[in-house]
Fold this sequence. Notes:
Arc Repressor Mutant, subunit A; Dna Ligase, domain 1; 3-stranded mixed β-sheet; two-stranded antiparallel sheet
Amino acid sequence: MAETKLRYSKQRETIYDVLKEDSTHPNVDRIYMNVRKIIPDISLGTVYRNLNLLADQKRILRLDVGDGVIHFDARVEPHYHLVCDECGSIQDLFLDESLISPLIDKVQDICDDQIHSAEILFHGTCRHCLKKKH
């Protein structure tokens, strides 16, 4: 699919800027609440539509971590995520590609399809929840 150039939109740029400032991988409701502090009359539909446009343009990531809610991430460089099973937080993991490439190669060896990339989601307990236990 050819990438189409979007016309500039102050609302879209505000939504993007709000997302860039929030490293918690917020859902649309949280983004909407924060954008409304800047643009009080913006609608939830406008926020949702623009998040999806930004994701389709690969300016942000859509994340489905299995909690029934879509989360968004402004960091589009290659990285992975850890979901805390205790508090539900989502954290970025930047792993050396030398860890991931052999895994992709092994999977490629056992399937007839061609693999271009992998989205790996780790589940565990974040350092904050671990500290609470000790």
